[in-house]
């Protein structure tokens, strides 16, 4: 990875800042609970989630078992760089302002695994040699909740097994179809999913989410509001991609580009 490319990625992130908030089905406000969830989802299509990685605490992987240390999702954007939510990478002591960024050696990244407990022939495990969290990440507002993970060794890319995802550089229109992927909880208070899950959601007008009977202006410039106004579908602490049909010689395929990282959720599917 050249210094020029790293600087380009960092400049892109600083200028376009990805954020996300997923709403509950009636847009009512609830106490924030930070736990990974994929509510109302379905088993992911392996061919469409080849860039999804599992970010794990190494000590829990070693002490318990492979898969037990999963904390957050991440997305592979180059052969040795991933993107994830900054809030996943800190140790919090006495509130959001009393925190410490975990050392890179505390983390393990797993790619090419569908079931988080199963190490397949295609599974690749890497250590992290560097972490760059957004310099303006705010624990209170969750603005700029984004970070880059630099692997100790490049990942061998393989079509249909492990691939990178492109970063979206276009404006995202209202009602754009999106898909969130992760190993989150499939129901409130439940256990983490064993198999990778997906949920289809859409971009919602931020004014709806910022209305007085929902989030009361807590979404800021640069944030997107995504979810399902009919309810029953939510996501937390996972990556979201746009889905775009491509007509190639009469056949329809789906391409993805990363548009945001889930960072803030109130009361997923509670009402």
Automatic annotation (TrEMBL):
<keyword id="KW-0472">Membrane</keyword>
<dbReference type="Pfam" id="PF00089">
    <property type="entry name" value="Trypsin"/>
</dbReference>
<dbReference type="InterPro" id="IPR043504">
    <property type="entry name" value="Peptidase_S1_PA_chymotrypsin"/>
</dbReference>
<feature type="transmembrane region" description="Helical">
    <location>
        <begin position="250"/>
        <end position="270"/>
    </location>
</feature>
<keyword id="KW-1015">Disulfide bond</keyword>
<keyword id="KW-0732">Signal</keyword>
<keyword id="KW-0812">Transmembrane</keyword>
<protein>
    <submittedName>
        <fullName>CSON008611 protein</fullName>
    </submittedName>
</protein>
<feature type="signal peptide">
    <location>
        <begin position="1"/>
        <end position="24"/>
    </location>
</feature>
<dbReference type="GO" id="GO:0004252">
    <property type="term" value="F:serine-type endopeptidase activity"/>
</dbReference>
<dbReference type="GO" id="GO:0006508">
    <property type="term" value="P:proteolysis"/>
</dbReference>
<dbReference type="InterPro" id="IPR001254">
    <property type="entry name" value="Trypsin_dom"/>
</dbReference>
<dbReference type="InterPro" id="IPR018114">
    <property type="entry name" value="TRYPSIN_HIS"/>
</dbReference>
<dbReference type="InterPro" id="IPR009003">
    <property type="entry name" value="Peptidase_S1_PA"/>
</dbReference>
<dbReference type="InterPro" id="IPR001314">
    <property type="entry name" value="Peptidase_S1A"/>
</dbReference>
<comment type="similarity">
    <text>Belongs to the peptidase S1 family. CLIP subfamily.</text>
</comment>
<keyword id="KW-1133">Transmembrane helix</keyword>
<feature type="domain" description="Peptidase S1">
    <location>
        <begin position="38"/>
        <end position="271"/>
    </location>
</feature>
